[in-house]
Amino acid sequence: MRKIVVSEFVSLDNVIQAPGGTEEDTEGGFTHGGWTWPFWHDEIGANFFQEMTRTDALLLGRKTWEIHGGAFDPMAAGDPFGDLMNTMPKYVVSTTLTTTSSWRNSTLISSNVVEEVRALKAQPGKNIAIDGSSVLIHTLAEHDLIDEYHLHVYPLVLGSGKKLFPEGLRVNLRLVEARPLPSGVVFMHYERA
């Protein structure tokens, strides 16, 4: 059975919203976008590429899928990162999308999300990765469908924003690895306990 692996940049107060840019996701009046940049270190990119070697599909919520697709789909062939993201199969969960034509190799999941994700996990293959996608992650966590969390924990508290873990849900995890990076970020790998 395949594993679902959540891979996130997260603040000390559990926020995952808009790590990459000021205009990335301003929903709810969020004004802290781009909070990861002062802490960049090449090991963060290396961790991502290592994770992708164990992954053969992405599972994303609509907003994250649109943000990623807008960035990666236009990339010219030959860019290693763009090629990886554009050729990998993607599953987007949305009740509002009617087409996935804006990002190649994407499939729409518009109903029976929990059952569809269980069916994806039952297929042969490597890991299924999720990033961003707070609403989807909450749904999957509530149905005990997430197997691992690969977190880059940043040394800051944002005070507001979309959270990785849903309010009121207990999630028991087992620490597999914790590794500080020179920029103050700590990479943490957890499995379901």
UniProtKB/TrEMBL annotation:
Swiss-Prot/TrEMBL GO biological process terms: riboflavin biosynthetic process
Entries under SUPFAM superfamilies matching the protein: Dihydrofolate reductase-like
PANTHER family in UniProt: BIFUNCTIONAL DEAMINASE-REDUCTASE DOMAIN PROTEIN, DIHYDROFOLATE REDUCTASE FAMILY PROTEIN (AFU_ORTHOLOGUE AFUA_8G06820)
Entry protein name: Dihydrofolate reductase
Pfam families, alphabetized: RibD_C (PF01872)
Source organism of the structure: Tengunoibacter tsumagoiensis
Domain of life: Bacteria
GO molecular function: 5-amino-6-(5-phosphoribosylamino)uracil reductase activity
All residue ranges annotated as the Bacterial bifunctional deaminase-reductase C-terminal domain in the record: 2-187
